[in-house]
Structures are given as C-alpha cells and as structure tokens.
Write a structure and sequence with these properties.
Layout lengths: L6 H18 L1 H4 L36 H37 L1 H15 L3 H12 L3 H11 L1 H15 L3 H8 L4 H37 L11 H8 L8 H28 L1 H4 L1
Helix pairs in contact: 1-3, 1-11, 3-4, 3-6, 3-7, 3-9, 3-11, 5-6, 7-9, 8-9, 9-10, 9-11, 10-11
C-alpha cells in the first residue's frame, strides 16, 4: 500500500493545483476586469480591514480590483514559467546529450559556452538583454528559456556519461543502431527523472525572474497584470495602501515555496538512493 505524501507536500500540491485552476479559469473567477479603472473606488482596504466585500483584497491607486489582478497575474506567472521551462529544458537536454555522447569538440564547445554564461550573474544578464529588446511577454519567455539551459545541459551530460558505456548501450551499438536512435530510445528515457526535478526548480526560478523584471519595468508591459508589476505599483503606497504590494507578494511566496517543496519531494521519489 502506497503512503500518501507528507502534509506539507499535499499542501504544496494543492497550492499548485489552485494556481493551475485560477490560470485556466481566470476569466470566470475574476470578479472584475483587471484593467478597469474606477478612481472613485481607489485605495479601498481589504474587506477584513474595514473595506467592502465587493473588493475582498481591496483596490489600488487607480481603483482596480486587487483580487482580479492577482488572479490574472497568476495566469501570467504560470504561462511564463511553463513556457520558459519547456524552452530551456528542450534546449538543455539536447545539448547535454550531444555533449555527453559525442564528446570531443562538441563537448568542448558546449561546456565552454556554458561556463562562459555561468561567469555572468544571471539577473544582470536578464536585465541587459531585456533592456535591449524592450518589455514584452513573448520576449521575456524566450529570454528566460534561452538563458536557463545550462543547468539541464550539465546534469544531462553527466547522466549520459554514466550511461553511454553501459552494456545495453554497447549492445545497441553492436546491433548497428545509429546514435540518434540510441539517444532517443535508450538514453533519454533513462535521464528523464533528473530532468523533471531540474524543471521543477527552474519553474520557481522563472516565476521569480519574471516578477523581478516586471518590477524593474523590463518584463511585461504596464497594461498586463503581473505580480511583479503589482509590487512595483504598490511600493509607493506602502503607508496608505499596503495591501497593493502584500497580495502579490504573498502569492509569489506561496507559489515559489510550493514549487520548491514539491520539487524536493519529487527528487526523493525519483532518486532510488534517497528512498530508503
């Protein structure tokens, strides 16, 4: 009989499931248009702090409903995180397999490129690239995805080096299987476990990176509701409108914490050395 995950993991999975539901059904769950401005309703506090239940999380300096913007911001964060992970994971795994299996000049070029990229602080690299390209949802997804490939490539390379001299790989070579077939049918399935774990942590990093760049004005455009943009808008109203920054800040904290907890649990489940 299988044991249930620990309560902390169940809670983390519940938060992530709620985020997915909110992202898919944002148009139904949000009580207001996140871009609708109502200056007559500006800076209404949350309902539990003397406000009205028409705006449970309060309103911002333009009278926009904070709850609606948090809901739509969750959609943006999940979209950026998943798309960036898909890009970086695909790119990193492919380069890691080529580097580890072919070796030689391929290994030297790919790993030296990875080392050069690691020499630059990631946040400075993101800021530099986005400052040149300008804000945009598609741009930030591509930039985060392309910059984040190194972790996948290095771990995939190590896994391939450990596998490529195994007996079942040697048998496939002896039967005349081409390198592409060996990589696709024998090596890739046996390295997916570590890659899934890396993807879970990269997802959290991508969400924080998007929020950081949006906070600096280099992420999504101002018209797009984003948790980072909401933090930037709320920093000037911490005295009279603290809830403007509190709601998106708590949302980022809960989601990133949940992803990290789920990633730790997933690592333990997929690594047979840690199961005991």
């Amino acid at each position: 009989m299988r044991r249930l995950p620990p309560p902390a993991v169940l809670g983390a999975l519940g938060v992530l499931a709620l985020l997915a539901l909110v992202a898919v059904c944002a148009g139904v769950l949000a009580p207001y248009d996140p871009a609708a401005v109502s200056l007559g309703d500006r800076l209404i506090p949350p309902a539990l702090f003397g406000g009205t239940w028409r705006h449970p999380f309060g309103t911002d300096a333009l009278g926009q409903d904070v709850l609606s913007r948090v809901i739509y911001g969750g959609r943006i964060s999940l979209e950026v995180g998943l798309c960036a992970v898909a890009i970086s994971g695909t790119l990193g795994v492919l380069l890691g397999m080529v580097s580890g299996y072919l070796g030689g000049v391929w290994d030297d070029v790919i790993m030296r490129t990875a080392e050069i990229q690691l020499a630059f602080p990631s946040i400075l690299l993101y800021i530099s690239v986005m400052a040149v390209l300008g804000p945009g949802l598609g741009k930030i997804i591509v930039v985060i995805g392309v910059v984040s490939w190194v972790a996948y490539a290095r771990i995939e390379r190590g896994a391939v080096l450990a596998l490529k001299n195994q007996e079942f790989i040697e048998a496939a070579r002896a039967l005349g299987a081409p390198a592409l077939t060996i990589l696709r049918r024998h090596i890739l399935p046996n390295t997916l476990g570590p890659m899934i774990v890396v993807a879970s942590f990269t997802l959290a990093t991508a969400i924080v990176t998007e929020a950081s760049l949006s906070f600096l004005g280099l992420g999504v455009p101002p018209s797009v509701p984003s948790w980072g943009r909401m933090l930037a808008d709320g920093r000037d109203y911490l005295q009279q409108g603290w809830w403007m920054a509190t709601a998106p800040g708590v949302a980022i904290m809960l989601v990133v914490l949940s992803v990290n907890i789920a990633g730790d649990w997933l690592r333990d489940r997929l690594d047979p050395r840690l199961r005991a």
